[in-house]
Design goal:
By secondary structure, the chain is mostly helical. Helices cover 47% and strands 0% of the residues. It is globular and about 30 Å long. It starts with a helix and ends in a 5-residue tail after the last helix.
């Protein structure tokens, strides 16, 4: 039999797990990178020395240094590029959809977890 305190604990733990999974690399940004970035920043080509096809590669950064500053989207070079406030903007021809930019921002702000 489930008691009221037990139910509250399940609800609290469930919401924490959901929040954590929503800000993990695979849940938050891997698909964004696959759709928009890995053609130029993947296993075959690494423009600027940057690979975005796996979490360790993203966190390693590229020729210009770290791409991600965990917890600080505004200081993260990758986020500056996709917001198109840094030259050259990324992706070069077509801006990312606002929802994908928001996913990146949320993931970075939450600590850029694997």
């Amino acid at each position: 039999m489930l008691t009221l305190p037990g139910l509250w604990m399940m609800l609290l733990l469930g919401s924490t797990d959901d929040r954590a999974s929503a800000t993990s690399f695979d849940a938050a940004v891997a698909a964004v990178f696959r759709r928009h970035c890995v053609r130029c920043h993947g296993p075959r080509e690494q423009s600027g020395g940057l690979r975005l096809d796996s979490y360790p590669n993203v966190m390693r950064g590229g020729d210009q240094g770290p791409a991600i500053i965990a917890g600080d989207p505004d200081a993260s070079l990758l986020f500056q590029k996709v917001r198109r406030r840094d030259e050259p903007p990324m992706p070069p021809r077509t801006p990312l959809p606002a929802r994908d930019i928001a996913k990146l921002k949320t993931w970075i702000a939450a600590g850029a977890s694997p």
